[in-house]
Amino acid sequence: MENQLSFNEKDEKIDFSKIIQPYLSRWLWFAISVVVAFIFAYAYLRYAPSIYRATTTVMLKDDKKGGVVNELSALSDLDILKDIKDNIENQIEVLKSRTLSEKVVQKLNLHISYISEGKVKTFDVYNNTPAFISIETLVRSSVKLKVVGEENEFTLFEDEQPLGTFRYGEIIQNHIGLFSIHKSAENTKFPYSIGIDIEDPIRVASSYRSSLNIKLVGKNTSVLELSVSHQNKKKAEDYLNTLVEIYNTETITDQRFISQNTSDFLTKRLEVLTKELHEVEKHAEIFKKENRVTNIQTDAQFNLENANLFDRKYVEATTQIELIENTIKGFIDVKSTGKTFPLLDVFTSNQVLSAAIEEHNKKTIHRNQIALNAGEGNIMLKQIEEEIEALKITIKENLLLMKSNLLIQKNEISKKQASLSGRVRTIPTLEKELREITRQQSVKESLFLYLLEKREEAEISMAALAPKAKVIDRALGGATPISPRPMIILLGAIVLGCIIPFLVIYIMELFNIKVRSKSDVEERLSVPFVGQIPHTDDTQQIVTLDTLSPLAEGFQMVCTNMDFVLNDTPQGQSKTILVTSSFPEEGKTFVSVNLAATFAVSGKKTLLIGMDIRNPKIGEQLNLRSVGLTNYLASDIDLSSVIVKIPNFREFYVLPTKVVPPNPAELLTSSKITKMFEQLKQEFDYIIVDTAPVNVVADTLLIAKYADACVYVIRENFSDKRMLESVQRLYDDKRLPNMAVVLNDVSLGNMTPYYGYNYGYGYGAKNQKNKSLFKKILHKFRW
Asked: Which of 26, 86, 373, 644 is the right S-S partner for 90, CB 3.0 to 4.6 Å?
């Protein structure tokens, strides 16, 4: 039989039309979803605030990154400039610091926004406000006010509640704080309404800081690009310009602080040395006057030259010792807070001492920065002060160690000088005393000149201080907003509008356990497939000779295919067809009635028997009130008396069931059933038997032996795919004769193209045109 039909042949190739069919059949879902997404996108674009990005470019003066020539390069050999050479990464962190951002917000009053309400959006008018607020104190960090102003006075509101009417410039003191409102321009149009939103400066600074982006323009440059995003383009520009300005101011302040401390220290030491030098010179003057000495000749030039050599070494050692002692007295032993220590040349020979002095200066600057914002009880302040004191101890220990070494050297020189003095006993004692005075004078003069030179260097460095960041391009906001972007939003709306219904349909199909199309049946069954019955809103409809509809075409196709199934039945012999299903409500009675009607319309004498005696529906379907099959089986009445001819049909007869018997199985196995079929097959060309569902009761299997074929009805979007396994078992076990499958209640979108319904052909198109627009749309959403 399967060789005679090709309905169950399966294409092993991927059927792309089947994959996309669920989506194509619900094209209206996609259309509506895209339209809705477009509406939301349009509303978002209309009401969402525009965001602009402002950008500025600066060049940091840092030798490591190839910056511009340092204005202080001529003084690069001075130790006082060592601590101000920071790398680019550190400066980026300074620019992004919270403290710097808060200073910018406070300077520009960015925590105060002036809001103008438009027809659709609200706007931050910034510098174009008709009135502005001057704040003395605020009780709360966040306040929302509204000013409705006239020419000479204004009314103040908070949360739509009036706070009173005031004159411009009048001091207002209430639960909000102490403040005043001022007119900003003479040409303000009256009346006006402006909102004033005051926010926490720290929170506003954090917001700007989070949107600030800093990046290096190139790997081998020190050029930075700073950008920030904000609803108000002018605010973003001012923020960047002021950020760079305050950064430069603070870096210059830090450098000046170091130089000023150094200069102050050197000035104090010069004052002390001036007095000491004056005393030595006065002593020399008195000595020469008392001894009447103007010029002393030496006897032994060679000894004097050697003496001079050791004298120079002695002077050098004495100078270094005195410098160390002066440093300990003037810096280490004196309790000083916040002062840096100059790294002099005499200390550079000791690497440990040099490193300790550099670390001390860095921590002192750090301590001073913390002290600006913290109280004296601050834990971090105490901790860093303890670290500074520890460094002082380290410095002092190294200075004392250096002094000890110099004293040893000095003693050795003195011994050699004493030895030399023994060899020059001829030199007058007067010359020796004068040399001692001259030596002291030389030491003081050398130290004085050295410190004087360093003080001048410190003064020059303060005068030559330049901004750390050189502005290449001042901040400029973009002409177009960076957000929202209409094209991206609209494109996203299209994509989202397609994705949502796609996912919904995909999930529906993924969890689908219902038979949705002919392919679902053919993939799971090898039973011959004889036709599809299209969906109809009229479940009582019966095919007649004049019926022009997809329904009539569907049943005509089933009848034609059933003739192929029954091809083995001898010519001229009656053909009996059982109609059954797995469960009730799958439309077997509807199929039975219309299948019989279709055979009758084609001129075949057809009998429809209602043998679903447990749940008879044929009488209700055809409005029959006469006695029926159960009456015949349970009594001795004549068979012809219970057969009813259907009006308007020439060859359509029905043997209905009216009364539900208490013993249906016994009736169906009685001998009268066999006699009945033998008699009926002599009188009718086709006998259509409406039987009970096979998965509910066994009635159908009891009478299957009387049939030549069986039409198994499966209903689209109702029958469970899992139940198709039982259908296949019935077919494999040959429990029902010549089984064939009919798919009932098929939506027109799922009909196989050869039916012609999707092409607007014939009566199918005519019937579709008669549907209302609402029914057509509703049909698109049919699951």
From this structure: 86
pLDDT of residue 752: 58
If asked whether residues 494 and 567 sit together in one domain, one would say: no
Measured distance CA(363)–CA(369) in Å, rounded: 10
- The answer to whether residue 742 sits within a structural domain is yes
- Give me the DSSP letters along 452-486: HHHHHHHHHHHHT---SEEEEEEEEE-SS-SBS-H
**What CATH number has the domain bearing residue 677?**
3.40.50.300
Q: Are 584 and 590 in contact (CB under 8 A)?
A: no
Please give the model's pTM, rounded to 2 decimal places. Answer: 0.55
Say if strands 709-715 and 739-746 run parallel, antiparallel, or are unpaired.
parallel
The string of pLDDT tens digits covering residues 423-453 is 555 456 667 777 787 888 788 888 888 888 8
Same domain, yes or no: 502 and 522: no
Give 566-584 pLDDT, tens digit per residue.
Answer: 888 777 788 999 999 999 9
Candidates 706, 539, 696; CA nearest to 609 is 706
How many other CB atoms sit within 10 Å of the CB of residue 755?
19
- In degrees rounded to 5, what are phi and psi of residue 340? -90, 165
Residue with the larger pLDDT of the pair 8 and 570: 570
Asked if residue 559 and residue 506 are part of one domain, the reply reads no
DSSP H/E element including 323: helix 301-327
* H-state helical runs in 328-378: 351-373
User: Which residues touch 34 (CB under 8 Å, ≥6 apart)?
Assistant: 493, 494, 497, 498
Give φ, ψ of 197 to 5 degrees. Answer: -105, 115
Structure tokens at 637: 């009445």
Domain that holds residue 116: 112-198
pLDDT tens digits, one per residue of 169-220: 999 999 899 999 998 876 578 888 899 999 999 999 999 999 999 999 988 8
Q: Measure the CA angle with vertex 663, ends 659 and 666; round to 5°.
A: 120
The reply to whether 578 and 497 lie within a common domain is no
**Rounded distance, CA 343 to CA 690, Å?**
113
Based on the fold, state whether residues 533 and 456 are members of the same structural domain: no
Distance CA 270, CA 449 (A): 9
Residue 414, CB half-sphere, CA atoms under 13 Å: how many?
A: 9
> Count of domains in the chain?
4
Task: Kindly state whether residues 466 and 497 are assigned to the same domain.
Answer: no
* 21-48 pLDDT tens trace: 778 878 999 999 999 999 999 999 888 8
DSSP state letter for 51: B
